[in-house]
Amino acid sequence: MKEFDKIIGYSDVKAELEKLCDIMVNSEKYKNLGVTTPGGLLLHGKPGVGKTLMANCLIKASGRKSFTLHKDKPNGDFVNEIRRVFDEAKANVPSIVFLDDLDKFANEDDAHPNAEEYVTVQACIDGCKGSDVFVLATANKLKSLPESLKRAGRFDKVIEMVYPRGDDAVEIVRYYLSQKNYVGDIDAKEIARILDGESCAELETVINEAGLIAGYAGKQTIEMDDMIKACRDVIFDCYESAKDVRPAADIERLAYHEAGHVVITELLEEGSTTLVSICNHGGDIDGFATYYQNESYFYYKKYMENRVMGLLGGKAAIEVKFGETDVGCNSDLHRAFEIAKRFADEYCSTSFDRWETERSSQALKERKEMQKIVEVEHLYAKTRKLLILNREFLDKVASALIEKKTLIARDIAAIKATCKITVE
Predict the structure, then answer these.
(1) Cβ pair 10, 50 in contact under 8 A
(2) Checking DSSP bridges between strand 95-99 and strand 133-139, what pairing results, if any?
(3) What is the pLDDT of residues 166-224, one digit of tens each?
(4) DSSP assigned state of 5
(5) What three-state secondary structure class fits 31?
(6) With DSSP H G I counted as helix, E B as strand and the rest as coil, what are the percentages for the chain, rounded to 5?
(7) Among 10, 289, 313, 362, which is most exposed with the fewest C-beta within 10 angstroms?
(8) What is the β-pairing status of strands 406-408 and 288-291?
């Protein structure tokens, strides 16, 4: 259907919308089968994933007259507006009532979602039974809505919208690039991996920012380096300062810390580092590295262990290079211990005697804490050994960071290709 061509990626969701549209447009063939057709659809997910766009595509493709509700009136007036809109929709069937940002209709907290606005919506939906009124809604926080509103019979279809990944993200990046003039040789797949887990709105913003960067530099085309700067600036809030006044020794330590993360990650899961930077930007964080999370991460302990070792790589690199304690690894350690905590408790990967319940003894909790420490100690020893065995790779990545300040996957792969790699 032509209207759905505006939706880039999200093939599964698009297919579901096309089916719903066919049900509304060709209702007779479904009635002849004796089936009950869906009367409502709720699209939910984080802001910026395209919920409203998809809802509007469905409305246009259906050809039905639509009535949209936003929370733009005081509570009492808005309740009356809800009733008025539903009455008008019933008088103009076949029709669609679009409840945009349904979770913002009331200010109730998550534990008390039964506000008058939601009760009114429920009553109005029930009042449309038997009439050809389709109820379409979007929401950011599904848990803010009462269970009674989300149930089948009111919203027969509930679809979660997630941030684009993989091929969907690549397709969206290519689409936004196609909307710009004079684009150079840009690797859409690599940009999509850097922006993994970001919303469609963020992808669009990054690509537009790349154009602004290119224009300010007096370029005739948007190039890959403009895209990298835009990713770094918009997503990671790392705007490079015009002048780097940091002492050379501090820059070197930072480069080795970030190189430690990169080297361990690349040794364990090649190609997973997407971007690493030590740009001076005057913020609280001097450097960072980002990774493309394996889609099987939550199915295998080995991938979680790899992540712990990657997090410990910065600390280990400072010890290997300078023989000193790394004082900039606090956040890395917190994240590493949080993952290791799951090994000892949630997964019982070492022993069932560490399974914790609400009535667990203090002794059990202490055993679990000790096991968590043992896990991290073991993985840290492996991390340090890998860096020693691959010292050439570590030194070359650190040197490249000192020189270029920012590296992407292709840079790291090129460096690795020049090194003798040892992985036990």
Answers:
(1) yes
(2) parallel
(3) 899 999 999 999 999 888 889 999 999 999 888 999 999 999 999 999 999 999 999 99
(4) G
(5) helix
(6) 55, 10, 35
(7) 362
(8) unpaired
Which residues have CB under 8 Å from 180's CB, separation 6+?
207, 208, 211, 222
Cα–Cα dist 131/87, whole Å? 11
The closest alpha carbon to 1, from 42, 40, 57, 45, belongs to: 57
What are the φ/ψ torsions at residue 77 (nearest 5 degrees)?
Answer: -65, -35
Lowest mean pLDDT across 107-116, 122-131, 330-339, 377-386 = 107-116
Tokens of 278: 């030590």
> Any idea what DSSP says for residue 148?
H
Residues 259, 393: Cα–Cα separation, whole Å:
9
Which ranges in 63-114 belong to alpha helices (H)?
75-90
Q: Which residue has the tokens 């803010």?
A: 144
Q: Which amino acid makes up residue 65? A: K
4-47 residue pLDDT tens: 988 998 999 999 999 999 999 998 899 899 888 889 999 999 99
Tokens of 106: 């009331």
Angle at 259 between CA 270 and CA 235, to 5 degrees: 80
Residues 47 and 33 sit within 8 Å (Cβ to Cβ): no
pLDDT tens-digit series, residues 396-407: 999 999 999 999
C-beta separation of 238 from 279 below 8 A: yes
| Residue 353 CB burial class (10 angstroms; 0-12, 13-18, ≥19) | exposed
Which two structure tokens, joined as six digits, stand for 60?
Answer: 């246009």
User: For 223-349, where are the alpha helices, taking DSSP H only?
Assistant: 224-230, 248-268, 301-322, 330-344
Q: 139: which strand partners?
A: 44
Report the alpha-carbon distance of residue 382 to residue 424 in Å, rounded: 9
The residue to which tokens 């050379």 are assigned? 248
Helix 330-344 vs helix 362-389: angle between axes, to the nearest 10 degrees?
120
How many beta carbons lie within 10 A of that of residue 231, not counting itself? 27
Q: What letter would DSSP give residue 234?
A: I
End-to-end Cα, the chain, rounded Å? 54
